[in-house]
Amino acid sequence: MTDKKSRTKRQTHRKRSSKEEVRYVVEIQGWDWGFWFGITNAPHLSGGHYDDYRHLEITGTFVAPHKYAGRTVELAFLPDRRLNNQGGGTYHINSIGHLTLPRSARAICSMPSDSLPAVLQMLIAERFRFVVFSGAAARYGQVDFRSFRFATTFDPQEDG
Q1: Mean per-residue pLDDT of the chain
Q2: CA atoms of 25 and 22, how far apart (whole Å)
Q3: How far is Cα 19 from Cα 31, in angstroms, rounded to an integer?
Q4: pTM to 2 decimals?
């Protein structure tokens, strides 16, 4: 006679579908760009003896989704020479940036460095008024972005 032990059932949690695409729209209120150049402390990371800092920093307020409308957000775009060629290697990339929402909303995104001059020209001319991000719904106060675009206009109807 075999003694069967009773097993407790494990609770299974449903994973939220990460396929749901959400648009996060930020109206640009202000921006800043600085340039720093110097000798690097980490040549193995920068790929040489020199390094530079060209981050584009934008402040704005959320327009969409409605849940975050009116909330202030800080965006940092980090130009990267390695993104200029579309190859990018053979590994899988899940996101190009992320947004954190718990206390103060902040986003960090990578961008090809060769796009920076055109983006700066449009910001100087005050043509770009919005940044539109696409990503999954916020989870644990974080959003991973799959794409972003700078836009001159935003139509709330297309966000439906």
Answers
A1: 83
A2: 10
A3: 32
A4: 0.77
